[in-house]
Amino acid sequence: MENTLLHPDEALAQAGIAFPVDERPADIVETLNTLPAEKAAGILDGFTAERAIEVLDLPGLDDAADIVQHLPPAKAVTLLQGLSADRLTDIFHDLDASARDSLIDRLDADTRDSLNRLLSYPEQSAGSIMTVEFVSVPGNWTVGQTLDHIRKVESTRETVYSIYVLHPVRKTLQQAVTLRRLIAGDPGAPILSVAARRTPITISPLASREEAARLISKYDLLAIPVVSRSGHVLGIVTVDDVIDEIVKSGTEDAQRFGGVEALEEPYLRTGFGEMIRKRAGWLSVLFLSEMLTASAMQYFEAELEKAIVLTLFIPLIMSSGGNSGSQATSLLIRALALGEVQLRDWWRVALRELPTGLMLGAILGVIGMCRIFLWQHLGFYDYGEHWMLIALTVGAALVGIVTFGSMAGSMLPFILQRLGFDPASASAPFVATLVDVTGLVIYFAVAAAILTGTLL
Amino acid sequence: MENTLLHPDEALAQAGIAFPVDERPADIVETLNTLPAEKAAGILDGFTAERAIEVLDLPGLDDAADIVQHLPPAKAVTLLQGLSADRLTDIFHDLDASARDSLIDRLDADTRDSLNRLLSYPEQSAGSIMTVEFVSVPGNWTVGQTLDHIRKVESTRETVYSIYVLHPVRKTLQQAVTLRRLIAGDPGAPILSVAARRTPITISPLASREEAARLISKYDLLAIPVVSRSGHVLGIVTVDDVIDEIVKSGTEDAQRFGGVEALEEPYLRTGFGEMIRKRAGWLSVLFLSEMLTASAMQYFEAELEKAIVLTLFIPLIMSSGGNSGSQATSLLIRALALGEVQLRDWWRVALRELPTGLMLGAILGVIGMCRIFLWQHLGFYDYGEHWMLIALTVGAALVGIVTFGSMAGSMLPFILQRLGFDPASASAPFVATLVDVTGLVIYFAVAAAILTGTLL
């Protein structure tokens, strides 16, 4: 055939890839992630439907939506119908609008209905990552009936380890039963007799995925039911989805703290243009803000000309403010994310950061003054006749700047949260920039106070 | 009684805390975490042994070792014997040597033996977080025999959702069976007929806990068997332990990236002295390194005196280098942690960061030059007759410094990993400091090249 489309086997061969028949789907995903979507689609197309579905079902597969768009439409529909409901929703969220519309019409009615329902939840919500394939039984069943039911539906459910017991008439959630308690129970006993003593932990479909992760992790659950206001179980969020979520949000937070917009794909697969966009934005904003330092320096130019010796310590002093701010911010972002600290605790934190900043500033101040004493006495540099006053200026400025850095760095995540932003949007470079400008002003103010009449 | 020790009820009352009888252990833990260890011990002592064990068994309880040391020894022994093996090991790792010795002798022989075995694994290893309470059956059993066995041992096992099938004679691991496949199976069928098609994913006891977390997360497992070189199952690591591990290591990484030594306790529970120690160390090291900037400035003092206008841009230019370095470091730390990038990929990364850095530097360089043009033309500031050369100096220096920042920031995690350190020990302040000194040298070198003969 003389066309540009490769036959699947050729695509496989050309990519130099042949998977052993018992290769694990997670390992296949790892390989596919290194290939362009078109090649990956060719390989999936060459698999049996069962195997292709197993692979496509893994959230670890990047670009799944892109891959689906490169599949022949009939094949795409077959594979999509075999996916778990939460994964299907995930992929549909990422499809182009045109592909989405054309594919959704070809799905069977049941799949389409459940998809439309799941797509209606906001993208970062528990509802958007839940699966509707869970096990529920009426509260008037016995242990034996429930076990028989599980045996029948096992293959079509994402997890059968948590069973949700519904009110026989109202169908609202009554209790949760674990499979281990169920098999240990007497088959003739009522299902409620083996249920947990406590009412189940639930989550609203509109709660954040982070909240689902937090609850599952805190209560060591295998799944958490997503419950409507009327008490009906809409779906469940399972522990494996939550692990992916925790890892993903850890990556996003780390990248944002480094001052980068979170990448959507792994580092080596992010294109050059995308990489520049994700980095240039913040870098330019920071650069523009940091220009205020040039303005501040211009403002103090007269002082600088009189005492050029003051410029020597500018980088040292400014970086110390940025570093202490970065420390405080990283501590507080994490404490807020883990719920160790609440918004209302801001004053407790401020009351801790104030003495901490003063102490840290004093430590650096003493080191800085020692350096000036040493250099002066050892003859490495001559700071002039007022060297002791210069040392005092540097020491005092450090106390002020490090204290300011700790305070600003610790309060910034609270301010962001209060304004409705994610506290994790505070980045180390952002804090450093914030502290730099103020740091310069503090430095020159301290210098003016101490050196006016002598050097200035 | 006229003594300083409080009766448990008094301790509870004095702390103003009364737990409802059906309060969840995880919620009790949250409250205990806000109390000093002595008070928490008093409250635990007032609980029934069963309830106290449930609470102490949760890894979320900070200071568990401290709390145990504040319990009456007989009570401590009762509670410790009731804990799961992995949690017991965890607590013993944190006990003072004297408490450890006195308590270990009072444990029953079985608990002591399993504890000693687990304590022999290094603290960050999979062996140290595994539990020995898992279900294993010989490979010649039937599905029904296995189910009967699980019913009997269910209450003494941490998880029964993965069942390990051992060679009937050699007792080595043959297969893993999930409980869901087991209950769906025919009771008369041999156990191996419902086993997974693939050989089970296993981990060595000496592998890192991060590796256990990575495997469980990648293959969506509920537990991973820890297998000796001879093929015997030593224990299992369960998904809930792994979630705690992922969250904990995420926090440590975030704190380290912010330039703080990882805190052992939540922010608000870390004492003032401890907080200073965790922050002052790095801050002082960074400060001492940053002193090189003062030395560099002294070295270029002649140039500074001739062209004071150059000093105006020092903070701006240096911070841009630090920011681009911080971006690159955060991207690479995370890519290395997730295995998206391997040590051997360093040159690929270098080949990407070089053009990225040049491009980002060019963007900032153009913005910086525009600023100088604008200020000059709008009359905000007079940069003198050579203002165009100054603009050129700033622009060229930014290209050089941002490129250097991106390269240094991206290579640092590789260098640390190559030297056997955790790549995540690279912090934003560390990168900024590294780039600051070089940044100054680049700036003055560019200035010398462009301005010698005019301003210099």
Give a short summary of the structure:
With 456 residues, the first copy, chain A, is mostly helical. The first copy, chain A, has 3 domains: 8-120, MgtE N-terminal fold, CATH 1.25.60.10; 135-239, CBS-domain (Roll), CATH 3.10.580.10; 267-451, Tetracycline Repressor, domain 2, CATH 1.10.357. Chain A contains 20 helices and 5 strands.
Mean pLDDT of chain A comes to 87
Going by CATH, what is the homologous superfamily of the largest domain in chain A?
SLC41 divalent cation transporters, integral membrane domain
Main interface pair?
Answer: A-B, 114 and 114 residues
The end-to-end span of chain A amounts to 85 Å
The gyration radius over C-alpha positions of chain A equals: 30 Å
How are the strands of the largest sheet of chain A arranged?
Answer: 1-2-3
Q: Unreliable segments of chain A (pLDDT under 50, ≥5 consecutive)?
A: 1-9
- According to DSSP, the number of beta strands of chain A is 5
Describe the protein.
In chain A, helix 11 links the parallel strand 1 and strand 2. Chain A contains 20 helices and five strands. The radius of gyration of chain A is 30 Å and the shape is elongated. Chain A has three domains: 113 residues, MgtE N-terminal domain-like (MgtE N-terminal fold, Alpha Horseshoe), CATH 1.25.60.10; 105 residues, CBS-domain (Roll); 185 residues, SLC41 divalent cation transporters, integral membrane domain (Tetracycline Repressor, domain 2, Orthogonal Bundle), CATH 1.10.357. The N terminus of chain A is likely disordered. With 456 residues, chain A is mostly helical. The longest helix of chain A is centred in the last third of the chain and has 33 residues. Chain A has a three-stranded mixed β-sheet. The first copy, chain A, has a two-stranded antiparallel sheet with strand order 4-5. At the A-B interface, helix 11, helix 12, helix 13, helix 14 and helix 15 of A face helix 11, helix 12, helix 13, helix 14 and helix 15 of B.
